[in-house]
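Lab notebook, bench 4. We co-purified these components, and the gel suggests they stay together. Before we commit to crystallization screens, I want a quick structural picture of the whole thing.
Request: model the full complex, all chains together.
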Amino acid sequence: METWWRALTFTLGYNTSLVTVGAMLLAAAAGMVGSYILLRKRALVSDAISHATLPGLALAFLVMGIWQGDGRVLPVLLAGAAGSAALGLWLVQRIAERTRLGEDAAIGAVLSTFFAFGVVLITVIQTLSVRGQSGLNSYLVGATAGMLYSEALLIAACALGLLVALLVWRRDFLLLCFDPAFARTQGYNTSRLDLLLLLLLMAVVVIGLKVTGLILIVALTIIPPVAARFWTDQPMRMVALAALLGALAGYLGVTLSSVREGLPTGPLIVLSAFGLFLISFLFSPRRGVLASLLAYQRLRRRVHLRQGLLALGRNEPIFDGLTLRLLRRRGLVRRDGVATPAGEAAARDAEHEERLWAHYRRRYPDDALHREHAGLTPIGQVLSADAIMALEAELPPAEVTR
Amino acid sequence: MNEFMMFSLVPLTIAIIISMTCALLGNFLVLRRQSLIGDAISHVALPGIVVSFLITGTLASLAMMLGAGVAALVTVALIELVRRLGRVEGTAAMGVVFTSLFAVGVLLLEWHGASGVHLDVEHALYGNLESLIWFDGVSLASLFDPQALADLPPQLGRAAWVGLVVVAFVVVMRRPLVLASFDPDFAASMRTRPALVDLMLVTLVAVAAIAAFEAVGSIIVIAMFICPAAAARLMTNRLGVQIVWSQVFALLAAVGGYLLAGEAPRWLGFDTSLSAAGMIASLAGLILLAACLFGPCRARTGAAHQD
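Here is the predicted assembly.
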């Protein structure tokens, strides 16, 4: 607990702090680029990219190992990873564009095949006597514990560069996501812009390999944007929020992993992100589950109340338990189900309102279509007083029910 | 020959059975554009197995398969929950759920990794096809020797059972399955219960993935669900022919990949072998690549050839 607090306040040593900052920058960049990808409905493209890094990674390791005796040179490994990821990405694009296969099949085929070939290469590496073989496994699930200072610096610097690039091109990407045809008429080269976006995604994935590992980096490009989508309907705010949530997840994950020896960073970052997603999913006031549930309950009560009042007005018996409870709680009916004076007044109001709405719908069907059509809002809140006066004047006299 | 009986017969047979089983189901996944459900399910097998190990304390096959099966069903349910309640797009919901569950699996594994359990991420991904040795398989005669047959690795029997169940499912349910794959609305109007068929398909995908997972690792599973079926899709416009093609491709990839993994290094002068599962999947990818380049029906319009 104390170690965690020290990690949280950046007092656990320079290296840990640098890793934390690097992970936060990386996760922020991942959240931003992931938002655009999510808006383009291609969330799992990053899955293909991340799995496709393995053969390049292994090949670079093999070459460096044979050449220098030790394959663990981060810049070369990342360059190799980027190379094979680019090839995989190109294949996904080509298969989805040029053949009848859907993008899902293209993604699945590329990710499994590339990963499998990477596994074959790893078995080749295992037969050779190259030092630092265990270092390769850290790219599968990520490890920041043994990260060198220079590596952490490289990751942080690259992540910062990506963030700047994403900020510079934010409006272009937005246009691409929402209206590619319009973007073309405005003189944007959309296919090049699309490529740029995917290249930035690839860069995020490749840089993140060392932090979360290649299987889990996908999560950083998907979960924060999905979580951010719950809180806002404005795309720019969503991108900013996704960056913020990503950074928060990175911060929590890295600091948590420093609590105990051998705790893997990647899963902790992903689970932190998932925690943030869960909070958004449940408690977001706009689209959250709780908010939807409450809105549903409110609507249900209003419908029951209105139906109950109309039944009272028509002197019909009420059997529904919820309706009776609602009416009784408001003092509109007595215990035996007979209307109180207040209830009779409310019932007359409701009946009048219903007739006004019905007349309005008959008289101005087009206008009514554009208004709230459940007829549950008091008509006084929808129409002006003059309009209601005019409607009331046109209203045919009510038939006497009792 | 004797060496082949002992070391290669069982792994090769298992690889063939699993490849063909996965490819059979893959036809429908590719048609429905649900290819990635296989990806998600094979990822969450890891947390399922780890949790079942933590609960039962054994690595017995039954417990492992049960754990992975429960995890698969939980995943499908969670994906639907996030998609429906959160109004999140389908692929994104899938991404959220399976990566998080996989993270749980890795975390639990590393947390308890110190206790010296033989269970690691690599094993789960790569499988250990080569270790399925039939010690009593000394010659051709062993095939008819009940005593030797009793010593066959249990994975073989399990893979065979799963293969039979999948074939039976596809044969019995072929009409509702095809109907629901091409036109779910029409299927619903014909009262063939497309939702139920969907659920059964996903369950069988999970069963096949888990049986394969135990024997050959999860990579080959994803490749086999997608590559042969996708390649077959580019060869023909008829479903029946497509299924036959996918089976041929799966067989080709399994046999070729297995032999290549064992023999290729020897041609180059090394006395080792490569990952058979990885090689099989790579070969399946190459077959798909060839189909993408030369398949007679690769164009999107589907009217490349009138026949």
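Chain B touches chain A through 70 residues (CB under 8 Å). Worth comparing against the SEC data before the next meeting. The domain at 2-215 of chain B is CATH 1.10.3470.10 (ABC transporter involved in vitamin B12 uptake, BtuC).
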